[in-house]
Design goal:
alpha+beta, 393 residues
């Protein structure tokens, strides 16, 4: 249906029924989080547009895709399970792409929210992973996560994404970051989403940013204050922009760029390294390094997951984003594609530290013996120093 919301043309507007409660809950949450609603679009249309006056005289435009969340007893499903359905309209209307409305000028912020009125909380999903909207799917979550969100007001966790009959997993990491929060944290979540969209944070970095917001309030966004991402990354805003400008891949999404920045700085300061050359070329490792003893090594940089194995070991994914058409093995790295993997430990440790391992010693893929397994355990066999990890050559 071709229609405007608040005088703005977005990808698609849906007629909805029985969502007045969600509409009112959103309005109340704006007030509870320290804002004032200047404008609200109709309750029988989705998405909902809200014009908000926030702290420090902020003017915030919100385009909200709300979905009802609840807890109902369903045969053969866990008793502690809550769920929401991503759906507007009847099943016959779900075919085709249902693109989200995204402001190319980045003035308005798009939110994809589960609204759990019964438990007085929201479930925040990453719009980048839900564009287009996967109409008809169910999103399940546990009572333990609901209780954590209600008790602390803000709860962040990783959820495994699985392929469906008509879709691939939404992320290369097969994990998505979910933020649950009480109404009084709505505008804090909006600021998080605005920052995440600006830098196109991938799920691991989004997880870190969301965790840091847990104890942060809108007052810390005052004019003149240090930007929270500058604190998080250990970089100035100028360094962040320059990093994005130099790396072509980061114009699409900032994925490993921050980790690469810190790894380059670490390698440059290492007295055992004579020269560091960043390689910003598709199908090439991230760095070529010349050691003081003359050896030349190539290094691939990867972010570890914030989640650990049961015994405390870290885990790092070592595979490409996608495979070439007709060649499923092409998604997995050959053992000879680089000499070392550098695993960035920031996600689980909150420190810009790295450990290294020779590619020859990494676990192999179970079906492709010349390829590296996509998930690697970061244990005591990984080394803190490049020279300790590199085999004699």
């Amino acid at each position: 249906m071709s229609e405007d919301v608040a005088g703005r043309s977005y990808a698609r507007v849906y007629r909805t029924l029985g969502r007045q409660v969600l509409h009112e809950f959103l309005r109340q949450a704006v007030s509870a989080s320290g804002g004032r609603v200047l404008y609200a679009s109709r309750a029988d249309r989705a998405p909902i547009y809200l014009g908000v006056h926030g702290a420090h005289d902020e003017r915030i435009g919100l385009l909200v895709y709300p979905f009802t969340a609840n807890q109902r007893t369903i045969t053969n499903r866990p008793l502690d399970e809550h769920r929401m359905q991503i759906r507007y309209g009847g099943e016959e209307s779900w075919a085709g792409e249902h693109r989200l409305g995204l402001d190319v000028a980045q003035v308005d912020t798009t939110l994809v929210l589960g609204v759990h009125v019964e438990r007085q909380m929201f479930i925040g999903l990453d719009p980048a992973l839900y564009d287009p909207l996967p109409m008809g799917i169910s999103f399940e979550f546990k009572e333990s996560d609901v209780a954590a969100a209600i008790g602390r007001g803000w709860h962040v966790y990783e959820r495994v994404t699985r392929a469906g009959r008509r879709r691939d997993p939404r992320t290369a990491e097969r994990l998505e970051t979910v933020v649950m929060f009480r109404p009084e944290r709505l505008l804090d979540y909006v600021r998080l989403e605005r920052e995440a969209a600006d830098l196109a944070l991938d799920p691991p970095l989004r997880f870190i940013a969301a965790q840091q917001v847990a104890t942060r309030t809108g007052r810390e966004h005052a004019i003149g204050a240090l930007h929270p991402l500058e604190e998080q990354f250990g970089m100035s805003s100028a360094d962040i922009l320059e990093m994005i400008n130099k790396r072509l891949r980061l114009s699409v999404a900032v994925r490993g760029g921050v980790a690469e920045f810190h790894l380059e700085r670490l390698l440059t300061a290492d007295p055992s390294v004579a020269h560091v050359e960043p390689l910003d070329v598709d199908s090439q490792p991230d760095f070529r390094v010349t050691l003081a003893d003359g050896r030349v090594l190539t290094i691939e940089c990867k972010n570890t997951s914030p989640e650990r194995y049961a015994n405390g070991d870290y885990r790092v994914e070592v595979q490409k984003t996608r495979a070439s058409t007709g060649d499923p093995a092409s998604r997995y790295y050959r053992v000879d594609q680089f000499d070392l993997v550098a695993a960035c430990l920031y996600a689980p440790t909150k420190k810009w530290e790295f450990v290294f391992k020779d590619a020859e010693l990494l676990a192999r893929h179970r079906y492709y013996p010349d390829r590296i397994a996509p998930m690697q355990r970061v244990d005591a066999t990984w080394q803190r120093e490049v020279t300790a990890a590199a085999r004699p050559r």
